[in-house]
Every structure is written in structure tokens, then in C-alpha cells.
């Protein structure tokens, strides 16, 4: 499998959003790095094409796609995050790019229905699914008051158990299989599916989400084209400077105390597929119309 490494975190996630994205973004616990979304859009689509994110969250894919002159449609289950995605489009984009973005509140398993006439015409699906593990924002103030470091009510994107953030094991696989099937339906022949995942560790075992994603996408009819290591550490001279969260650092420290030779995970896996034979021409150098 062709392997590439993209250094998309030379600047921290906070720095990449600061002064551009809506401050309300801090509440979403699982955002894509803007630089990663931008690289995917520039590499795997062309100006004027249609980019879709069926698990849109705060709308990072949509904002970065519109900045590059693509039409962008997002689907998000939670009203709270769908509103945030719209706010981000308002906040970051000039009117001529803002009008390229549409956000539907709905279930990604209904993607084809939600897209209506656009189904079958999508050029790129760029998305990041929940990682089949707990996600949440650390609430240090709550912890100082004797509460939970990561309150249960705020975990997994929503307290709604229908949110895929709560799905584990077979339930997660079945739901994601349906969503990748829906992505195959909405893409044009030769269209691209780009999925950002992260391998996580739980109780000393690695959950190979990238491997599972490849298996599910291939079962849905996709051809596996490319694997990209999206580096979350910064390259500084000859070193990698990791930026672990408090949570990651604690987990790795505890694993090493138990005698497990664990290391910090400093990358996400970008798995790229085509719906039928790929029809890409080499990407010209592009610049986003950023503010
Ligand atoms: C990893 S996050 C995506 C984050 C996004 N890339 C961003 O930068 O903000 C996954 C999102 O999928 C949403 N989600 C979960 N189940 C869903 C479903 N069945 N249909 C649509 N969205 C869903 C969650 O609410 C969450 O916002």
C-alpha cells in the first residue's frame, strides 16, 4: 500500500483555529485538524466539485472545502453540532464562499435520501467517524470541585445513545458498514472516500480502527488507494515534538507503570478509497481564499 506522511500539525490545533473558527468549537470533543481537512480537499478534489461530510461535527471539512471553492454539504445528527457547523461557515467564510455550504441535521445512514438530486454526483466524501472509544473534553474546573474530569453527560458528542459516539464492537461495525455503503451510493463513479481514523489503546490492547475501516469500506465496494499518516506531532529539526493531551499522557504513563512498553500515539490514519477506478489528474498548486 502506498504510504505517505503529511506534517499537518506543525502548528497546534488551537493555533490553527484561533482567530478563524467560532470560539464555540472548543465544546466539540473530536474535531479534525483544519490543515488535514485542507490537504484532503486540495489533494482529492478540484474547484467547483462537490465535497460531502456525512459526520460533519463542527464543520471543519465544509469550511476548508468552501475556502478552496468547492460546494460542501454536511450531515450531522446533533442539532447542537449542526448549528455550530453553520456558525463556523458564517464566522470563517466570505459571502461568496459561505453560499457554497449546506448543513443538514440528520442521520448519516440516510445520506442518499438527504442529498436528493446530489446523490450519485459527489466527488469527494471527506469524513472522520467516532473512534469507538470514549471521547470528551477535560473539565478541570469540575474536577477541582470534586466532580468528574470528563463529565459523563458531555461524553461521546451527546447523551443520545443513538449517536454513534456511544456505539462499540458489532454495533459500531454495523452502523459504519451502512454509512460506507451510503457513501458508495452518493459518490460518482471514481469518486473518492477519505476517512480519518485513529488507532486507540484500551486496557493494554490496540483497537485497529484503520484496519477495520479498510475492511468495511472494501466490503461496501470501495478500492483502497492510499494510506496517509497524518502526523499530529510537529517536526522540529531532527525530532518529533508530540503534543499529547493530559488524558493521553496519563494513559501512557499508567501503561508504562504496568510494564507495558506503550508510546504516545502521535498520528491519525487517513485511509483513501475510490468508488471504482480512480480518475484523478495531478493536483495543481492551489491557495485557499482565507481571511
Ligand atoms: C469525529 S466527529 C466529526 C468531527 C468533524 N470532522 C469536525 O471537525 O468537527 C463525529 C461526528 O459524528 C456525529 N454523528 C454520530 N452519529 C451520527 C449519525 N448517525 N449521523 C450523523 N452524524 C453522526 C457526532 O455527533 C460527531 O459530531
In words, what does this structure look like?
- The protein has 291 residues and is of the alpha/beta class.
- The chain has a single domain, classed as 3-Layer(aba) Sandwich (Rossmann fold), CATH 3.40.50.150.
- It is 32% helix and 22% strand.
- It has helices spanning 13-17, 34-44, 60-67, 79-92, 95-98, 111-115, 140-144, 169-186, 209-219, 246-257, and strands at residues 3-6, 50-53, 71-76, 101-105, 122-127, 187-197, 200-202, 205-207, 223-231, 234-236, 239-241, 267-274.
- Strands 1-9-12-6-5-2-3-4 form an eight-stranded mixed β-sheet, sandwiched between helices.
- Helix 2 packs across helix 3 and helix 8 (169-186) packs across helix 9.
- The longest helix has 18 residues, at 169-186.
- The termini are far apart.
- Bound molecules: S-adenosylmethionine.
- S-adenosylmethionine (SAM) is lined by residues 28, 30-32, 55, 57-58, 60-61, 75-78, 81, 107-108, 128, 130, 157-158, 163-165.
Give a summary of the structure in a few sentences.
It contains ten helices and twelve strands. It has 291 residues and is of the alpha/beta class. The N and C termini lie far apart (37 Å).
Provide the helix percentage: 25-40%
Head-to-tail CA distance between termini:
37 Å
Q: What Rg, in angstroms, do the CA atoms define? A: 18 Å
Low-confidence stretches: none
Summed up, the domain count is 1
Widest sheet: strand ordering: 1-9-12-6-5-2-3-4
> Which structural class matches the secondary elements?
alpha/beta
CATH architecture: 3-Layer(aba) Sandwich
Strand content: 15-25%
Number of strands: 12
- CATH level-4 homologous superfamily: Vaccinia Virus protein VP39
> Please, what is the average pLDDT?
91
Cα shape: globular
CATH class categorisation: Alpha Beta
Number of helices: 10
Along the chain, the helix and strand elements come as EHHEHEHHEHEHHEEEHEEEHE
Amino acid at each position: 500500500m502506498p504510504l505517505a506522511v503529511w506534517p499537518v500539525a506543525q502548528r497546534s490545533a488551537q493555533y490553527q483555529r484561533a482567530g478563524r473558527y467560532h470560539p464555540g468549537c472548543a465544546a466539540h470533543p473530536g474535531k479534525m485538524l483544519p490543515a488535514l481537512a485542507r490537504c484532503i480537499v486540495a489533494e482529492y478534489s478540484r474547484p467547483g466539485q462537490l465535497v460531502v461530510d456525512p459526520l460533519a461535527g463542527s464543520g471543519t471539512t465544509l469550511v476548508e472545502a468552501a475556502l478552496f471553492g468547492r460546494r460542501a454539504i454536511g450531515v450531522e445528527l446533533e442539532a447542537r453540532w449542526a448549528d455550530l457547523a453553520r456558525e463556523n461557515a458564517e464566522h470563517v467564510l466570505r459571502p461568496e464562499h459561505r453560499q457554497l455550504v449546506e448543513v443538514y441535521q440528520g442521520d448519516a445512514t440516510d445520506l442518499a435520501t438527504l442529498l436528493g438530486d446530489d446523490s450519485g454526483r459527489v466527488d469527494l466524501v471527506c469524513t472522520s467517524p467516532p473512534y469507538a472509544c470514549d471521547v470528551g473534553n477535560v473539565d478541570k474546573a469540575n474536577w477541582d470541585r470534586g466532580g468528574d474530569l470528563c463529565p459523563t453527560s458531555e461524553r461521546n458528542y451527546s447523551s443520545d445513545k443513538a449517536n454513534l459516539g456511544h456505539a462499540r464492537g458489532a454495533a459500531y461495525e454495523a452502523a459504519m458498514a451502512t454509512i460506507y455503503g451510503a457513501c458508495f451510493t452518493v459518490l460518482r463513479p471514481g469518486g473518492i472516500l477519505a476517512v480519518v481514523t485513529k488507532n486507540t489503546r484500551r486496557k493494554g490492547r490496540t483497537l485497529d480502527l484503520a484496519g477495520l475501516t479498510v475492511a468495511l469500506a472494501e466490503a461496501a465496494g470501495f478500492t483502497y488507494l492510499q494510506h496517509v499518516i497524518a502526523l499530529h506531532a510537529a517536526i522540529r529539526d531532527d525530532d518529533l515534538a508530540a503534543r499529547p493531551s493530559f488524558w493521553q499522557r496519563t494513559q501512557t504513563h499508567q501503561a508504562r507503570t504496568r510494564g507495558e512498553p506503550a508510546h504516545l500515539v502521535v498520528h491519525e490514519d487517513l485511509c483513501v478509497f475510490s468508488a471504482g477506478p480512480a480518475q484523478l489528474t495531478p493536483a495543481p498548486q492551489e491557495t485557499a481564499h482565507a481571511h
